[in-house]
Amino acid sequence: MYIPKLSVDVEYRLRQANLLHLRDGTHLIPSKELKHDILERVAETMYALKAYPTNSEIEAVASALGRIHPCLKEQGSASGWSGWKNSLKFKMGNYRTKMRRLGHCDVTVNGGKHGKHSPCGDPPNKRIKRGEINYLPDYPDGQDDSTLEDARQTMVDEMKKKTPNAALIKQKMDLTFALRRSEVVKDKPAITQICERWPALFTEQQ
Q1: Which residue has the higher pLDDT, 119 or 147?
Q2: CA distances from 123 to 18, 116, 142, 186 (A)
Q3: Contact, 8 vs 41, CB < 8 A?
């Protein structure tokens, strides 16, 4: 499991603590500030990979943190990292809340089930379930509803040809993934509507 590089100051302090641990088995009791800096950086990296990591994935990260920085292993813990695992779990929840307040779509869509963070004052959506099934990515850089709709229409027109350009279809489908995902998650259209708007979705290649 990948553990990111921490700040220069934190890396230096952990390196010194690891040397002490190697020499005489000393375990570091991190200050509140140091623990916050470690958890914040690790949570940021985890969020970039997956907004809702599973329990086993969080445990794997905590385990890796203990292997890379043995000075952080917890005395009195059977695994040596159970406390870090719990802290990471809470930190990920706090980080998602922060991202939700900043308007990140991948977590805003799930926040709507509580109503509190629903965009445009939408009522609570109890049908929305937390997790990857509702993953809602942000639009690609430089793209908006208008440009992605143009790309979608280009793809639809291409699909009407006797021999559609497969490379062009793939390029447009990849580009419009966020728009398509948004429609499916938010609007829950009927299959007939999806077929009409995204005909390439039902090809063997897609």
Answers
A1: 147
A2: 51, 9, 31, 13
A3: no
